[in-house]
Amino acid sequence: MGAKFYKPKGMTYTQLCIWIDENFYKPDCDKELAFKYMYIIAYMLASKAKYFNNIDDYDGYASYLAYSTYQRMSNPNKIPLRSVLNYMKKIMRFRKIAYLKTTFSEVIDSDYNKNWNGDLYTEKTKQSLESREHDHLKNITLDLLESIPKSVKRSIPKVYSNNKVLSHNLYISALLTLLNSFVLPNKNEAYLESKQGSSPTFNNANYYNKYLGDDLILWHLPQSMSNTVILMINKVKQELFDDLQDIISDSKMSEEEYKNIFNDIIFGDNDEPFENN
User: Fold this and answer.
1) What Å distances lie between residue 199 and 29, 190, 203, CA to CA?
2) 98-151 residue pLDDT tens
3) Do 234 and 227 touch, CB atoms closer than 8 A?
4) Confidence class of residue 54 from pLDDT cuts 50, 70 and 90?
5) How far does Cα 46 stand from its chain's mean position?
6) How high does pLDDT run on average in the chain?
7) How many CB atoms lie within 10 A of CB 36?
8) Looking at residue 163, what DSSP letter applies?
9) Exposed site from 17, 67, 138, 149, fewest CB < 10 Å?
10) Helices (H) and strands (E) in the chain, counts
């Protein structure tokens, strides 16, 4: 079958991504062309990850991932994506699971009938699979946190763009305030680590809520700039929240989906380690 759409001559994959980022939200954007580019990018990402043994599967998956991305970008209730490539990379693993479940359910059920050994799918195996997916989510979340400095820069009001000193001080003020609200002081961090090791019932969330700082930090700025910094911080937090919501909604999996992953590992061409003893 092969790909339905092919990369235009003279354009790199990076250029396709940039075109989508710069044009999708414009009123006169060619949405059909945007979808074609999403398909091409999705096909490339899946091929690079070697997701399937059968080459025909890449076409269906690329359409699935492209459609999912297109729907997300077309949703007026979601903030615009800043990078279509980063978004597709974040959700491609979860979209593979959903694609296998919805498109190849009969094939997967057939594999279960021929090869499925329920004794192998122990509770420990499931916990191992869950742990691996949680690690994937953790890595994505860390990537989001690493993107905060760029998000802070984007949040600086354009009215201050020509004032380099003021823009810099706004940037540092917002960044320090966010850091203060995300990271525990050293003494509290040490106490948290000791409690985690000695008390299984210790509530991490409550501890963070109690000791994380919420003070506004103004770096070489007058008090009159407080509202500007607060608005910047709220904008950054909203972007982070929306990104996390997208990731969480794409990562929710049922018992059946966990079994699909297990089946893919056992009977497919997949060398990812897991525990079943």
Assistant:
1) 56, 14, 9
2) 777 666 544 444 444 444 445 444 555 555 555 555 565 666 666 677 778 888
3) no
4) confident
5) 16
6) 75
7) 18
8) -
9) 138
10) 12, 0
Contact in structure between 221 and 170 (CB atoms under 8 Å): yes
Percent of the chain past pLDDT 70, that is, above it, reads 60
Q: Which amino acid is at 214?
A: D
Q: Which amino acid is at 129?
A: L
Single-letter amino acid, residue 163? N
φ/ψ of residue 229, rounded to 5: -65, -40
Length of the chain: 277
- In Å, what is the CA distance from 49 to each residue of 42, 52, 71, 168, 260? 11, 9, 23, 40, 18
Q: Which residue has the tokens 């949680």?
A: 134
HSE of 181 in the Cβ direction (CA atoms, 13 Å)?
A: 17
**Alpha-carbon distance 58 to 47, whole Å?**
7
pLDDT band at 193 (very low <50, low <70, confident <90, very high): low
Place of tokens 């994959």: 13
17 against 116, higher pLDDT = 17
* Confidence at residue 239, expressed as pLDDT on a 0 to 100 scale: 81
Angle, CA 251 vertex, CA 106 and CA 43 arms, to 5°: 65
